[in-house]
Amino acid sequence: MKMDVKTLDAKKAGTVDLPEDIFGLEPRADILNRMVTWQLAKRRAGTRKTKSRGEIARTGAKWGRQKGGGGARHGSKRAGSGVGGAKAHGPRVRSHAIGMPRKLRALALRHALSAKAAAGELIVLDKAEAREIKTRAVREAFGKLGLDNALVIGGVELDENFARSARNIPNVDVLPVQGINVYDILRRHKLVLTKAAIEALEARFK
User: What domains appear along the chain, each with residue ranges and CATH number?
Assistant: First the structure.
């Protein structure tokens, strides 16, 4: 699978051969959905909590008459029906993480990459580097490439000037190749891979 390689100035810098087993699969929405659900569930804090009846510091003695009070019969001020009482079946501290096999997670990443390639939303850059830390210069370069909502994946080490210049641009994320993930790929309109990132991905899926 051949693709043109571009520079940040939107000029052609040769071609690259993308492996079919990574970028040429038929995307499966069920696998991608399962992966995104796994990612979002895993990052939930799960720290919401309300007090149960056993955690309320109020008397458990019957506080009113059984009959003749003119209202309902209450046995404890810790009950959820009263002001300051407990919450019945409230949220507890727990993990929201769900299981997903490692091989299926790797397959989902390949399907996400293939989906971007099939939709024509993949751009290959020669390198993502900047001479100085200047957001305006990187924004203008993205404008030439038609990038207004994109995920840029660099090599193992990001160019600091480029990363710091791009971090203030709205709807643009810059990650090293180790941080590539299905959710970030799908939430951005364009996926930009450097040649170093493609080489790292090929080594990763061997």
Answer: 2-45+99-204 (3.40.1370.10), 50-90 (no CATH)
